[in-house]
Structure formats: C-alpha cells, structure tokens
Amino acid sequence: MSALTQEKAIIAFGELGRKLINPTDILGNTLYSAESANAWFTQENIKKSILSFAEMLNQTDLALWFQSVKLSTSPKKVGLILAGNIPLVGLHDVLCVLATGNIALIKLSSSDDKLIKTVLAELITIEPAFADKIEYVERLKDFDAVIATGSNNSSRYFDYYFSKVPNIIRKNRNSVAVLDGSESFEDIQNLGNDIFDYFGLGCRNVSKIYLPKGYDIANFYEGIESFQPIINHFKYQNNYDYNKSIYLVNAAKHFDNGFLLLKEDESFTSPLAVLFYEEYNDLQEVKDKLADKSESIQCIITKAPVHLTTFSFGQSQHPKLWDYADNVNTVDFLNSLN
C-alpha cells in the first residue's frame, strides 16, 4: 500500500464529497438501520447531515483548508470520543485527524455507531492508504492525544482522565439568534432551519433568541409556520407536551403556536421544543452579554451589527471546514503534536 500524501488526501476528501451528494448510494440499508436504532435519526436528518458534509468537502474549500494542514512525519494516535446527538456529528474531528496524517482511535457514540463507519469505509475504498489510520475502539488506551466531546458533567471526568496528554475537551454549548426587527419573512423562515434542523438537538441549533423591546411575536411565528410538521414526530411531540404541561401547571408566562413554546429566560439552554427569549433595548447590551458568555456559545445567527463572528440566517448547520467546534482550531492542535 502506497504512503499517504497530502495530495492524495485532498483528492480523496474531494471524491468523498462528490459521492456524498447521493446519500442513498453511500449509506444504502444503513439509512434504515440507523433510524431503527435511534428514532431521532430520521432518514431526512441523516441525508441532511450527509449533504452538509458534501457541501463542506468541495475542492475550493479543501485546497484553502489544506494550506493550514501539516502532514505528520511521526503520526500520533489521537483518541476521539465522539458525540451522538445528531447524525455524523463527530466526522469532522475524524477528518481533521486523517488530514494531518495521524491515527484516529475512534470511540463511537452508542447513539451513532453505524453512519460514520459507513462513510469512512467509503473513504478507504477511495484511498486505501487511510485503512491503517482508522481504528475503532471500545476503550481508549495507548493514545498520544485526545479530543473528547460530551456534557458539562462528562467533561469533568475527561479533564481528570486525560490531563496528562494534549487534549481538547468540549462541553455543552448553545447557539443564539439576535433579531433587530428588520428581518424579512424569508429571514425568519431560514432561522427556522437553525432552530428545527435535527430537532434542535445540536450545539449549532438556536435555543435562544434576543428580541428588540416591543417585538411582535406573531411575526416570528408566521415566519416559522412551515416547520409545523415537526410536531408529527412522536419523540418531539412528547417533549412539547411535557414542557407545555409544566408551564401550564406552574402558570409560567409563555407563547405557544402548537409546535414551539417561547419562554422568557436568561439561560441559553432551553428544553427541547422550547425556545428561550430575552428582550433588549439596544444592541450594545446584547453584544456585551454575548461577549461575556462567549464560552457557552457555539454560533450567533444575525444580520444585526453585533461586531462578533456571526452566521447568516439558515446557515448554522452548514459550517465550513474551518468552522471549528468551540472556536478551537482542531488542525492547529493536531499540527502542534509534531
């Protein structure tokens, strides 16, 4: 088997991106088995995630991204503890390890233990030199570095257990949107994707919005009306019904359109089927709050001039190769292992 080169990696990633444009061709029966094992992984959401990676792995962006990638001359074993909240969420970390020529020791999430294997098997078919760079493990051992994604609780365990090796430990994060009242109907409709894609289970999903004082909630609800069918998913509906009953029993002020509850709350982490909101008087106060809480925020969705790194409406689940989780440059971390 010939050695992996950066040129081979770029070509292989690009070819994988082209093949992912037709998710059914790549996944086949895995589409059904993944949904059977995890009801949140609907075929629609799996395909949406696959197409997001197809979009990410385009030749132009790959050429630009690989300018910052150094191929390791002394490959390190990098343990990857992957999350399973949305389909294929850990694939980007795997690709970063492979792009840098290191060895990925992959601890799959029990919630997503089929899709990544299928996609990586396709990558190995395209470029066999990746075969000895991928190893699936039940327990991490003999590793040189670790990238672990989990909850705030599990991060404390990760911090302790992996403290003696270079590491990236990810905790809970949420995404927010800032409206200023000038948004079009289409803007709000696109914001619906940021809220409802993958049922709102991802850290890039908007769980909190900031609204100017006096904002008409009806404008927001009208804009997201096309997402009403989400209530037909039994697990989502169970969450909606549960949270609605809690608010009603406690006489908590909230808004309700039949599939999404709006509740005023300073927290970023809203329950499923609930969107928290806060009102503001001027944008500077929002900007100050977001800057102060930056370590809890994954994405900011807005067209308002908040002078922070932001995404356009509808784009939170369409990251580029260089849109790293928690704003920690994974490639720079992996390059530093040399």
From TrEMBL:
Pfam families: LuxC. Keywords: NADP. One of its GO terms (biological process) is bioluminescence. One of its GO terms (molecular function) is acyl-CoA dehydrogenase activity. It comes from the Bacteria. InterPro entries: CoA_reduct_LuxC (IPR008670). This is Acyl-CoA reductase (LuxC).
